[in-house]
Amino acid sequence: MTQTVRIAAGQGFWGDWLEAPVRQVTGGPVDYLMMDYLAEVTMSIMQKQKSRDPLLGYAKDFVPLMERILPTLAQRGIKVTTNAGGVNPRACAEAVAALARRLGLAGKLTIGVVSGDDLLGRLDDLLARGHGLKNLDTGRPLGDVRDRVQSANAYLGAAPVVEALGRGADIVITGRVTDTGLTLGPMMHAFGWRRDAWDLLAAGTVAGHTIECGAQCTGGNCLVDWERVPDLANVGYPIVEARPDGSFDVTKHPGTGGRVTVAGVTEQLVYEMGDPRAYITPDCVADFTTIQLTQVGKDRVRFAGIKGRSATDKLKVSIAYGYGYKAVGTLVYAWPDAYAKARRADQVLRRRLADLGLEFEAIVTEFVGVDATHGRLASAAGVPVDLPEVQLRVGVRARELAPVERFTREIAPLILNGPPSVTGFAGGRPKPEEIVAYWPALIDKREVQPCVDVVAV
Fold it and tell me: Are the beta carbons of 246 and 208 closer than 8 angstroms?
């Protein structure tokens, strides 16, 4: 049995630092490169891309990134687990396979493809058979918005990743596999953990949760002594050094910036946390109150004592649907009386919109530099001092496009027919955007069958 497995985080979201995975595979020894791309809204974006072009629907920047690191991966025997496949993992895998052949790697790589999470084409059948897919927050049945649904994906766990690795995959490209499953999968494969070894699966889940957001656990976006985090320009991304007994260390490559401390790791642990005693995934339920953290060296934190219990019989489903339209416009007002000018401009704009008889579901105003971050708490502190500049930011939301489009034409005239000293019209005339709303639901696990295919390069 392998005694230690090193799993390096290379991406924490779609749009993360492109240098991170390159540095992870060249900066020192690692066995796996884990790259997490997906968030709730990401799936609807990818579904729209696929509807326009059946060859799209995945994280497009993943392929040019692989062009940079594939030779190193092949040379060093580093395996990859990633959910960059989005709603079209097969097309993503085929693009990577074609790339590998161009790089002269034919016969040297095997790609695993995990699908089965996409439920969009099955929704009507599921609803007809009594699966209401009720909104977890409101209790409403999905039928209320069925005609506006744009994507629907169940969260798969680590099991299909383990299967793909077991079938010889060097690169595992998935659809909506959980962030934690991309790290847990390699640990289960390497150590031969059973699917009912709940404490071990909980440990792997905690490991995945700790590194899923990349540098957020190595000094990025860190509250504790943030000004003392060293060399953020060269921040090192996290690496899990896992052992068969479920204990593991979180560290980073030597010579990189950032830091790995108990305090910083703890900040990441409570990220997106509900009940710490029941962190629910498709693989297990992890008890975060049992985690024992120890600083065992510079930039090295040890995790031990993690307990878990059996997984539930449900999978979470992430559904996105069209809600309406929005637009946001900004103007910047300069000293003197910058705040007063911005407030007057807001009053003028609202009056003009009302006089036009436009109906909005919401109009929201923020005075950036005054209350955009702290809202009512800032207003409660009293009138601010005479600020050098204030940005007026107004957003509107409506079910129909027409009033939003008219709003986009009403903010620009304030430059000349409103209060004085507008110094910036950021981004030009605002553009209406479609609102994509989130609908969380649950489904019986028996209704979702992951599919694993292996593609030889």
Answer: no
